[in-house]
Design brief:
Blueprint (H helix, E strand, L loop, with lengths): L22 E3 L7 E3 H4 L2 E2 L8 E2 L11 E4 L7 E2 L2 H19 L10 E3 L4 E4 L4 E4 L8 E6 L1 E3 L8 H15 L23 E4 L3 E5 L5 E5 L2 H12 L4 H5 L1 E5 L13 E9 L10 H20 L5 E8 L11 H4 L6 H9 L2 H7 L4 H22 L2 H4 L3 E7 L1 H11 L3 H18 L4 H27 L14 E7 L3 H7 L19 E8 L23 E2 L30 H6 L19 H10 L1 H13 L9 H8 L1 H12 L23 E3 L8 H7 L8 H11 L1 H14 L1
Parallel strand pairs: 16-17, 16-18, 18-19, 19-20, 20-22, 21-22
Antiparallel strand pairs: 1-2, 3-4, 5-6, 5-10, 7-8, 8-9, 9-10, 11-15, 12-13, 13-14, 14-15
Helix pairs in contact: 6-22, 10-12, 17-18
């Protein structure tokens, strides 16, 4: 184990970040800083590194390292900035309790980019922005295992440290600085030993400390190996280091947060209340890896915060549970906890409660974040939202203030217009005029009453911030909008479904086999149903083409020639902006084509329905016949389309669309399918596969860092 040793024991190791801050603690163990150079003579290794003191002294605050442990995994070290501040709080607490005045209250220490706080007195950490039942234990590390640099348990570490200071404090350390490999301890007798509950520690010198297990098997193995000629230390000992490998400095701090992302869950949160917290943690960890690889030159940082809005809602209480039959109870409970959320949202009774729950949680998180980071708003910090599944629909309704009452009023107005258009008797006209005057009078009274006191009708929910980017993942939003009467227009603006004044950019991300996800672009311009979504780049793609420079590509029609009356073909000539919805290679047949199939015969109906059901999970273009068709090129496509009587879409021989009416910005972005994954299996798993995807993390950060990256590139050019 000694072959990999790089640092000496007596000083707690020499760090790779070694310039340090020159910070050390006073020998009294208090919380104050004192410059190490003035307190004790120091020497540095020729290549830099941590100061090496000539005599054994108490560990400085910068030599101690604090750790945390999540999900009962290994201990993870806090960064230097966090560890140093925790240690100072610990020493302040120890100093105040040692003074005889009883333990004084110490402020919690904010750690991990401000997401958690550490209570030094209870040695626990807890999240700031969300609730978590399990507290995260923290530990003070003084002695560390060679190689892994994992800390010894605090109780043992304290005993070893106390014994080390009692025996060696003030003693001279070795003069040699060539400590890349340890000197062998073979033949050396231990100069000091300490018995612990299950182990014992031997000091072969001030710098050479080994831990041995006292378990029976370890003792037997040690006896055998020693008889074979091996030393005790090399056969069964674990070398220990005093102080952490890396010195903690205040400069080792996280970058400033310039962009916060609220992550909103969909259905099923009641079934697994901590799921969104775990999913957001996965997304955050994945984004950190991407930041380190692609955006390390930027001095800013994107933070992800989970928005858990479901568990606080009471809704119907336990009424649905009480009417649920007992047979197959597990499956029924699962459906009640997941799919029932969709029914709640379509219910006029509970919809407002769901909307209000999410709106209040978003505003609470934003207010809390700004109160803890006052410079965020001052420096123009931005907010984006990532929503999943049903969460996309609720977030959209909050941003736009959409309410079914408004839809009802539109329907009433439409009925009135239809009444005016048809012939009516004199009596009907008189009653209609009377009704119109009464409604006008009612509106006036309501307005006067509203002016006197606050209205009991809830106002549309309003967010306390403007949304920079709204990312939808696995979203059924398009279906909800279509059922609300949204139809394609002639303008390529996002304003048709989400005004830019509310949200700067709308992006719809989906896996090609996600059965819950739908496209949004054809709701803005109809002919985009024949244009493939933008393919999201692989995470490891070298020099990918920027998304704004990617040209829209045409989805090849695969429809077989059938006889269609000439009159229909003449009347169906569309304008370039309202091109017909043709059979789509990726997304199955459209409803209009199924309607035509019903005219052409029962066989066509079966084929059309089969295409609709199965081409969503398996692409029809993979059949041999279609593969041959694809080889014919653009000319063959034109001929086939003309044979059917449907004019071809304007496209060039390269497969890209010629400029007609195009979207200002692309909205639909599709993940690339794995080369070996089963489409039927991925149809089950794809709806929840977004959280840990490196491709999605890179995609999100590309858009959120876009402005920062452009400003950095511009400043670099100006410098040149």
């Amino acid at each position: 184990s000694g072959a990999s040793l790089r640092y000496s024991t007596g000083t707690g190791g020499e760090g790779s970040e070694g310039e340090g801050a020159g910070l050390g603690s006073s020998d009294s163990g208090g919380s104050g800083f004192s410059l190490a150079a003035s307190a004790l003579p120091e020497r540095r290794r020729p290549g830099g590194g941590r100061p090496r003191y000539e005599v054994v002294r108490e560990l400085g605050a910068e030599e101690v390292r604090w750790f945390y442990r999540e999900d009962r995994k290994t201990w993870k070290p806090f960064i230097g900035y966090d560890s140093l501040r925790i240690e100072l709080a610990f020493r302040a607490l120890a100093g105040s309790s040692g003074g005889g005045g009883g333990p004084a209250g110490v402020e919690p220490v904010c750690v991990r980019s401000g997401l958690y706080e550490v209570d030094v007195a209870s040695a626990e950490s807890y999240p700031v922005y969300w609730n978590q039942t399990e507290k995260i234990p923290v530990m003070r590390g003084q002695w560390f295992i060679d190689g892994t640099w994992q800390p010894l348990e605090e109780e043992e570490s304290n005993l070893i440290e106390q014994e080390h200071l009692n025996r060696f404090k003030g003693q001279q350390l070795q003069e040699s600085f060539d400590m890349e490999a340890p000197k062998p301890v073979d033949g050396k007798e231990a100069i000091h030993s300490l018995k612990l509950s299950r182990n014992h520690v031997d000091w072969h010198s001030v710098d050479e400390v080994y831990l041995y297990s006292d378990a029976t098997t370890s003792k037997i193995a040690r006896t055998v190996t020693q008889k074979l000629g091996f030393s005790k230390a090399s056969s069964s000992g674990t070398r220990l280091h005093r102080g952490y490998v890396e010195e903690a400095t205040l400069e080792d701090k996280p970058p400033q947060t310039s962009h916060i992302v609220f992550v909103v869950h969909g259905i099923g949160q009641k079934m697994d209340q901590g799921r969104i917290i775990k999913n957001t943690a996965m997304m955050r960890d994945t984004a950190r890896k991407v930041e380190e690889k692609y955006f390390s030159n930027l001095a800013t940082h994107v933070e992800f915060l989970p928005v858990e809005w479901r568990s606080k809602l009471t809704l119907d209480g336990d009424t649905v549970d009480s009417i649920t039959p007992d047979k197959v109870r597990g499956l029924r409970d699962m459906l009640n906890s997941s799919a029932m959320d969709i029914m709640y949202y379509t219910s006029p009774l509970y919809r407002d409660e769901l909307v209000k729950g999410l709106q209040q949680e978003l505003n609470r998180l934003y207010t809390l974040f700004c109160s803890r980071n006052p410079e965020f708003e001052e420096k123009g910090g931005k907010v984006s939202i990532v929503s999943h599944s049903l969460g996309c629909v609720i977030t959209y309704d909050i941003m736009t203030g959409w309410n079914p009452v408004r839809l009802y009023e539109q329907l009433l107005q439409k009925e009135e217009e239809e009444l005016e258009d048809r012939w009516m008797s004199y009596e009907e006209q008189r009653l209609l005029e009377e009704l119109y005057i009464t409604k006008q009078r009612l509106r006036e009274i309501e307005e006067r009453l509203h002016g006197l006191k606050a209205s009991t009708i809830a106002k549309p929910p309003v967010l306390k911030f403007k949304v920079e980017n709204f990312f939808c993942m696995g979203s059924p939003l398009a279906v909800f909008l279509a059922l609300r009467g949204i139809r394609p227009g002639n303008s390529g603006s996002q304003d048709h479904i989400l005004p830019r004044t509310i949200c700067n950019r709308l992006l719809n991300i989906f896996h090609p086999t996600d059965p819950v996800a739908y496209r949004l672009e054809p709701l803005i311009l109809k002919h985009y149903s024949n244009i493939s979504p933008v393919q999201i780049h692989w995470y490891n793609t070298a020099n990918p083409l920027p998304y704004e420079h990617m040209k829209p590509s045409f989805l090849n029609p695969t429809k077989e020639a059938t006889s269609v009356p000439d009159s229909e073909s003449a009347s169906a000539a569309p304008s370039p902006t309202t091109s017909p919805v043709m059979v789509r290679r990726h997304y199955g047949e459209s409803i209009t084509n199924i309607g035509k199939a019903s005219i052409l015969g029962a066989a066509s109906i079966g084929k059309g329905l089969g295409g609709m059901l199965f081409s969503r999970f398996g692409r029809s273009s993979t059949t041999p016949q279609t593969m041959e068709t694809g080889k014919e090129g653009a000319e063959g496509e034109d001929k086939k389309a003309t044979a059917v009587g449907t004019p071809p879409l304007p496209h060039s021989s390269s497969g890209f669309l010629e400029p007609t009416v195009e979207l200002e910005h692309r909205i639909d972005f599709e993940l690339r399918e794995g080369l070996v994954e089963s489409r039927y299996w991925s149809a089950v798993t794809s709806h929840t596969a977004y959280w840990s995807s490196l491709d999605i993390a890179l995609f999100l950060l590309t858009f959120m860092y876009k402005q920062d990256q452009e400003e950095t590139d511009k400043s670099n050019l100006d410098t040149l």
